[in-house]
C-alpha cells in the first residue's frame, strides 16, 4: 500500500516535471526572445501554447504536495523545515508567474505587457531552479528526519543542489522548445518551427552536457544517489539517454511530433530514475518510505482518491487536450492557423 | 542562520510565532476574497449563458462571455494564492503537518481532485467561446460550478476538522496510529461550516459583482446589458442572504452546544450564567467585566435556546482553564467580529427584502437611487461580513490549531526568518491585489471603448485567419 502511494507520488512529480516543466521552459524562451519587436511572434506562440493548459498543468504540483503531506507527513515536515528558503522563493515565483501570465493576456498596452512578461519570464527561471535545488537537497541527504532542521543555507546551496537547479532550468527549456517546435508545426508557422528547432537542439546539447557533468558531481557529493543511479536505476538512466539522443536525431530529421514523445520519455525517466535511485528512502539516508508512511487507512483513502482522479480527470484532460490540439480553444489575439477559409 | 555573523544573526532572531500567524492570516484573508468569485461566478455566467442561448439574448451572451474572461483573471490569482497556502501549511506549521498530516490532509486530497476538475473545465469554458457550439460549450461550464462547490466543501471540512478533530486514534507518544478518513471528512462541525461557506460564496460573489453594475447604473449606464449584469448576481445574492441567516443561526446554536468557549467569547460571557444579555459592541475588561456597548436583556440566552427562553444557561469562559481558551484581547476580537458579521448580514438582508418587495409589487428594480447607492456598497459589506465570520471561527479556536490537541505556538516553525517572508508576502500581495483590480478595470474600460468588436464574437463564423490578433496588438491602445 505504502509503495503504491509512493509510486503515485513519484508519478505526480514526473507529470509535474514534464507538463509544468514545459510551461516553465516556455517562460525561459519568452525571457530570451529579445525586444518587443523581435520577440513578438515567438512570444505569441508561447502564449498560445500555454494559454488553455497552464492551470491544469500547475495542479500536478498541488497534487504532489498534498500527497506528500498526507501520505508521508513527517518527511514533508522535515523538508519544509530545512528547505524553508528555496520553497518560499519557489512559492513567490509561482505567484508572480501565474498572475503575471494571466495579467499579460488581459492587457493591451505594450508597456504593461512587457512588465508582466518580464515578471512572468524571470519567475519562470527562478521557480524551477529552486525546485531543482530542493530535489538536490533531498537526494543528497541534506534533509535530516525527525524534527531536526538541516542547515538553512548549505542544504540547498551545494554541488548537488546547484546541479539540480541548473538541470531543471535546462531540461525545462529543452522540453519547452521541443513542444513549441511541434506546436509551431501544427499551426503551420514555418519560420517558428525552425526558430524553436534550433533552440531545442541547443538546449538538448546543453542539458546533455549538464547531465554528463552531473555524474561526476553526484559521485563526489551524493554517493547514495550515485550508487542507486548506477545500479537499480541504471535501466532508466539508459532509456533517458537513448530518448534524449533520439529526440535530437528526430529533430534534425524534422520529425517534430515523435521528437516530442522522445523528449517526454527522456525527462520522465530521469525524474523517475531519481526516485528509484533513492529507494527505499524518502529522505536518504535517514528516513525510509515505510517509516514515514501514514496509517494504512490514510494510504487507502489516497489511493481511492487517485483512482477516482484517474476515472474522472483522465477523460477530462483528454477532452482538454483534444480540443486544444484541434485548435478549438483559441487564445485571444494569439497566432491562429493560417487561412484555410480565405 | 549559520552563515550570518553573530550580531546580525541575533538581530534576526525574532520569535517566529506571531509572524507565522500574521502571514497565515493575511494570505488566507486575501485568498478568501477570491474564493466566492471562483465558486459562484461560474454559476452566474452560466445563468447568463443559458438565457443567451435559450432566448437568443445578445446582451446576456456578451455578459456571459465577458464574465468568463474576468473569471480567467480571478481564477488565476486564486490558483496561485491557493498554492501559496499549500506551501505555507508546511513552511509555517511543520509540526502540525508532521503530526496530523495523515488525517488533516485527506480532505485536501479530495479538494485537489475538485480543483483539478475545475481547472480543466475553466480552461475549456473560457477558451471555448469562439469555436465550440453553443450547448456543448454551455455544458463545459457545469463541471466548474460543481467542482467549485465540492472544492470549498472539502477545504472547509479540513478547517472544521481543526475545530472538531475526529476520525483518528493516537498513541501515548502523540503519534497518529490509525485514521478513519470518513470520520475526518465528516467531522461534527463539517456540515454546518461548509454549508455556511458555500452559501457565503454565493452571497459575497453575487453582491460583489452586482455592486460593480450598480455603480455603472448610477453613472448613467442604464442599458439592458448593465441591468442584466446587476439583476443576475443580485438575485442570486438576495436569495442566498436569508438562507445564510438560517444556516448561520443553526451553526451558532451548534457552537453553543458544542464549542462553549468559542460561544462564550462570541457572546462575551465571562462566567456561566442564565438570562445573559446580548451585548452589541462593548468589551470584556481585565477584571472580567463586560463594559460599554448596548445591552439587550436576556436576548443572548433566548437566542441560544428559544425553548427555555431567558432561563437558558450559557457556559462562561471560566469553564475552561485560561491556558486553553482565547486570551482577553482575542475574546474581544471574536466578539467584535461577530457583531460586525451579524450587523452587515442584517443590513444585506434588509437590502434583499427591499429588492424582493420591489419585484413582488412592481416587477422591477427599486426606483430609488438610494437603492443603487447602497447596492454599490453591498459588495464590500459582504466581504467584510465574510472576513469577520472567518475571524470568529479562527480566533475563537485560539490558542489551538487542532482543538485540544495542539496549540498554534507548538505547531509553528522555529525558523527565525519568518518576519522577512511575511514582509515579502505583504509586498507581493499588495502589488498583486492592486494589479488585479487595475487589470479587471482596464478590461472593462477597454470593452466599453471598443463596444462590440466582432473579433471576439462568440459562436460566430470561423475567424478570418492568422496573426491579425498579433498585429492589432502593435497599435497602442490608450
Topology diagram in text:
The complex is a heterodimer of chains A (342) and B (478).
Chain A: H1 2-31, H2 40-50, H3 54-71, H4 73-82, H5 84-106, H6 110-139, H7 159-186, H8 190-221, H9 223-229, H10 234-252, H11 256-278, E1 281-283, E2 287-288, H12 289-292, H13 296-325
Antiparallel strand pairs in A: 1-2
Chain B: H1 6-12, H2 16-55, H3 58-92, H4 94-127, H5 134-163, E1 168-170, E2 176-179, H6 181-185, H7 190-218, H8 224-258, H9 260-266, E3 273-274, E4 278-280, E5 283-284, E6 290-291, E7 294-296, H10 299-304, E8 313-314, H11 328-362, H12 369-395, E9 400-402, E10 406-407, H13 408-411, H14 418-450, H15 468-474
Antiparallel strand pairs in B: 1-2, 3-8, 4-7, 5-6, 9-10
Task: Characterise this structure.
The complex is a heterodimer of chains A (342) and B (478). By secondary structure, chain A is mainly α. Chain A has 13 helices and 2 strands. In chain A, strands 1-2 form a two-stranded antiparallel ribbon. In chain A, strand 1 (281-283) and strand 2 (287-288) form a beta hairpin. In chain A, helix 1 (2-31) runs antiparallel to helix 3 and helix 9 (223-229) packs across helix 11 (256-278). The longest helix of chain A has 32 residues, at 190-221. Chain B has 478 residues and is mostly helical. Chain B contains 15 helices and 10 strands. Chain B has helices spanning 6-12, 16-55, 58-92, 94-127, 134-163, 181-185, 190-218, 224-258, 260-266, 299-304, 328-362, 369-395, 408-411, 418-450, 468-474; strands spanning 168-170, 176-179, 273-274, 278-280, 283-284, 290-291, 294-296, 313-314, 400-402, 406-407. In chain B, the strands form 5 sheets. Chain B has a two-stranded antiparallel sheet with strand order 1-2. Chain B has a two-stranded antiparallel ribbon with strand order 3-8. The termini of chain B are far apart. Mean pLDDT of chain B is 87; it is low at 1-8 and 461-478. At the A-B interface, helix 2, helix 3, helix 4, helix 5 and helix 13 of A face helix 3, helix 4, strand 2, helix 14 and helix 15 of B.
